[in-house]
Amino acid sequence: MQHTITKADARRIWIAAQRLDTAVPFGDGPDATRRAVEHLGYVQIDTINVIERCHHHILYTRIPAYRRSDLAHAQSVEKSVFEYWTHALSYVPTRDIRFHVRGMKAYASTPHRWYGSVTEQDRRKAIALVRTSGPLTIRDIDDDVLVEKDHPWASRKPSKMALQFAFHCGRVTISARTGMLKTYDLTERHFGWPRLPKAATDAEITAHRLDRALRAQGVVSLDSICHLEASRKPAMLRLIEVRVRLKQLLPVTVAGAERVAHWIEPETLQTAAAPATGLVHILSPFDPLVIQRKRLALFFGYDHRFEAYVPKDKRVLGYFALPVLVGDAIVAAIDLKADRQADKLRIQQWTWVDRGSSRAHKRLIEEQLHRFERFQLA
Fold first, then answer.
1. Concatenated DSSP letters of 33-100
2. Distance (Å, rounded) from C-alpha 354 to C-alpha 290?
3. Beta bridge partners of 85
4. Rounded distance between C-alpha atoms, residue 86 and residue 93, angstroms
5. 191, 223, 257 — which closes off a domain?
6. Are 102 and 202 in contact (CB under 8 A)?
7. For residue 69, is pLDDT > 70?
8. End position of a domain, from candidates 171, 191, 211
9. pTM of the predicted model, to two decimals?
10. In this structure, is residue 157 part of a structural domain?
11. Is residue 118 part of a domain?
12. Domain around 372
């Protein structure tokens, strides 16, 4: 049986799945960080620091009492999260590491062309240094013969590229992070394991991706489950069809978006509720609610533009615009910049998405901006 839901229903289900429908969904204290990452499945990392880096921003959005040291504790002390690639470099629950081991081994046997300059000697040297010296950063390596950079993001130190390659292969992990400076350690030594966990099978990985999407998205499509992983779609569709036959999933049509197939768990369809009245979230452009732009536009009718790499005269929303969620609607996009010397959060540009609601929402947004400023500059 095909069920039809409105776009408003779809928004509310997604917002609830993202835990943006209540003020303190994960509690507070260091363990709230673990709970948030495990629920979301990943928290993206990015280098841009016009305001606080996005991994801290995403966690603060769901943990009002969040402190940056909470993430450091989860990564380096509790070791309940680790860094690896999902659709981008992210913090991922350590409990999920076996779903990445197969990819690590595949990367070791078929490295990306980016690492074509890394020699076997470079690899062995990097691993040996970590093994004998203990956890280290690239700054601790001072005997490299420097080379010319072949890319703006590259390094003149061959050891850095070798460590990054070893990271992708699962040989080393990032045991700590200070800003964007990473400390590398042998993966088994960091976690206290004799060896990496046994790799999940392809079928288990597919099921994990589907379960993760259902938990964090509520109502799902092939594109939303397999974001930037199109090769997984055929296997994913087969699994979805099995679960539909078992009545574990229901096909749903989103009114006004009938061309995109969606699915939902029966209990989610029955318990969908509206977000708390007046709840305001200033979202990172890398927030899981925002990063899938087509899905955002489909459900919210809002096309977010990330314009950090757009020439100034062609920007519409601003260099680093942040969508503002009020209840179940995105009502504005605010381009912010942290002026750390002056201890101020500067509004570069404020763009109303829904001008009809601007007066009603302005006070609520300004109150949240004051709280956001305190977090930014703490």
1. HHHHHHHHS-EE-----SSS-HHHHHHHHH-TT--HHHHHIIIIIS--EEEEESSSEEEEEGGGTHHH
2. 17
3. 89
4. 11
5. 191
6. yes
7. yes
8. 191
9. 0.94
10. yes
11. yes
12. 280-377
